[in-house]
Automatic annotation (TrEMBL):
This is Uncharacterized protein DUF3307. It holds the Pfam family DUF3307. The chain crosses the membrane at residues 39-65, 86-107, 119-140, 152-173, 179-202, 214-237. Keywords: Membrane, Transmembrane, Transmembrane helix.
Length: 254
């Protein structure tokens, strides 16, 4: 099951945050854009799983419906904030997990799980799920987290510090979430404290005024929380791949 789940999670992240263009995002109220995105989800899932199955088409169809409902919500309620974004992602992840639970052997039945060498030595199944899981986790922590934090901060935009570089804040956010993710994966979560201290020093001037201080604190805590949550989720799924308890995030050296 966890091999299939890792592959489907990887496919979802690729479709939503790598191959989905800004134009597709801006025209989600058009059926053509949603259909194109649904097709991207379908193709990414086929490639990640290494197999073709009618249930993958069902997954893409559910993704299409979810995106359509979100576009309707945004258009009718003029609300493109954090709430519809989180609901949209939650529904996508639940459908991914649901398909993995219903059809756990999709990856095992695919070409990536087959012996590809004549001598019987090369087994992609041994490393591919972990590689896809950690790649997807890194992209989800950085890219998806950027959109989530950005939408969360929309109501507080009046207190935003003046930007010194175009998209500088976005880049800083991606880098800090990437570092947090790597620290957790490497088993060094204590390093996050040093990252917080470093950012506090560097952003001291911007945070010296009350409204700007609150804006920086909210954004920083939201960014760190997202990266930590995705890192823990990634490690839990990796434990599942290795037959360990999901909540055994760290292991004793003894």
């Amino acid at each position: 099951m966890f091999e299939t789940l890792s592959a489907l999670f990887f496919a979802h992240v690729l479709a939503d945050y790598v191959f989905q263009t800004q134009k597709m995002v801006e025209t989600k109220d058009r059926a053509s854009s949603i259909i194109l995105h649904g097709l991207t989800v379908y193709l990414c899932a086929i490639v990640a799983l290494g197999s073709i199955d009618w249930r993958i088409a069902v997954l893409a169809g559910l993704h299409f419906i979810t995106d359509g409902l979100k576009a309707y919500w945004v258009k009718t309620r003029a609300d493109d904030g954090i709430k519809p974004y989180l609901i949209d992602q939650l529904v996508h992840l639940v459908t991914v997990a649901g398909l993995a639970a219903i059809a756990p052997s999709l990856f095992a039945d695919g070409v990536w799980a087959k012996d590809l060498s004549e001598g019987g030595l090369l087994m992609v199944q041994a490393w591919a799920p972990s590689a896809m899981l950690f790649t997807a986790g890194a992209i989800y922590a950085t890219r998806a987290g950027g959109f989530a934090v950005g939408k969360l901060m929309i109501p507080f935009a009046a207190g935003a510090p003046a930007a010194s570089l175009p998209k500088g804040g976005m880049m800083i956010g991606q880098l800090e979430r990437g570092l947090i993710f790597l620290m957790f994966i490497a088993g060094q979560p204590a390093g996050i404290g040093f990252l917080i201290a470093a950012k506090s020093v560097l952003r001291f001037d911007a945070a010296s005024k009350n409204e700007k201080a609150e804006y920086v604190i909210i954004g920083t805590l939201a960014s760190f929380s997202w990266a930590i949550a995705i890192a823990i989720l990634t490690l839990a799924l990796h434990n599942g791949l290795n037959g360990l308890p999901l909540l055994e995030i760290t292991r004793s050296k003894d």
